Amino acid sequence: MGMGKMLEIKDITVQYGNNFPTLEHFGLSMKKGEIVGVVGESGSGKTTVIRAVLGALPGAGKVTSGDILFEGDSLLAYSKEEWRKLRGTAISMIFQDCGGTLNPMRKIGSQFVEYIRTHSQMGKKEAWELGREMLAKMRLPDGENVMNSYPHQLSGGMRQRVGIAIAMTFQPKLLLADEPTSALDVTTQAQIVRQMMELREQNDTGIIIVTHNLGVAAYMSDWLVVMQHGKAVDQGTRDDVLNHPTSEYTRSLLDAVPEMEGMRFVS
Ligand SMILES: Nc1ncnc2c1ncn2[C@@H]1O[C@H](COP(=O)(O)OP(=O)(O)OP(=O)(O)O)[C@@H](O)[C@H]1O
Ligand SMILES: [Mg+2]
Question: Going by CA atoms, what residue is nearest to atom 28 of ligand 1?
Fold first, then answer.
């Protein structure tokens, strides 16, 4: 069973308060180093899936049935202390335009150093060096300058690279990315997509990328999940879903994706 499985979402239901389920009978099984793309319309439950995995459902959100296993352990049984150790290290997350990660009032360097020191015993100087090294890995030229900048002084693409650099600091086994490229222009979007794929090549990082952009998901992913109204209406290997979609909804999404350079890639 669990052999090679890094993450197993087993038939979960998620409810916010007493409302009817937002997510119903949702399952996903993911191997180390795999890239999973989750697509679907607004409100279909994409963010809910990754927040459930991160143990960070907003408001009254709760997994009311099923289980989520990470390397064989139930995340639903994790204590606050266990989560504190796991989140930001083995499992980390990046958001759209880093809105959820970066504080606009503080310089990148001080935020990066604080993040590193929350998750390690490192001294300030050492943490600063590691931060700069991570920025260089994300191909941000002049890391020192970036460290000394406020978020608004950077372009959207640079901010997103900073967010990914921070999230990759402790070489997570699983990176959860919620619309990481949606706020970016097409060229920058393509660069970030390629860099995320390099992370997998270099560190064997498993990635769940949530996007409304089927072209991006199809380009990056080994495994595709198409969601509608809180359910996975199609799920399988990328080729399987693209070539043999079972739902009308997936077919309509595919019809809307233009062909570019022999590759389906939506702007
Ligand atoms: N904090 C919350 N409180 C109550 N209900 C919520 C909350 N967050 C989400 N929901 C419910 O869950 C549904 C799915 O939301 P979710 O954010 O997972 O969708 P999504 O697919 O990520 O949409 P989008 O593409 O717009 O980001 C929403 O339509 C809403 O009914
Ligand atoms: Mg969302």
Answer: 43
- For 187, half-sphere exposure in the C-beta direction (CA atoms, 13 angstrom radius) is 1
**Nearest residue to 189 (alpha-carbon basis) of 179, 174, 201, 175:** 179
Pick the residue whose CA is nearest to atom 17 on ligand 1.
47
**Which ligand has the shortest distance to the CA of 48?**
1
Check if 42 has its Cβ closer than 6 Å to any atom of ligand 1: yes
Q: What percent of the chain has a predicted confidence (pLDDT) above 70?
A: 94
The string of pLDDT tens digits covering residues 11-25 is: 999 999 888 899 999
CA of 22 to the centre of ligand 1 (A): 8
User: Strand (E) positions, 17-161?
Assistant: 23-31, 35-40, 61-70, 73-74, 91-94
Average pLDDT for 176-187: 88
How far is Cα 260 from Cα 7, in angstroms, rounded to an integer?
33
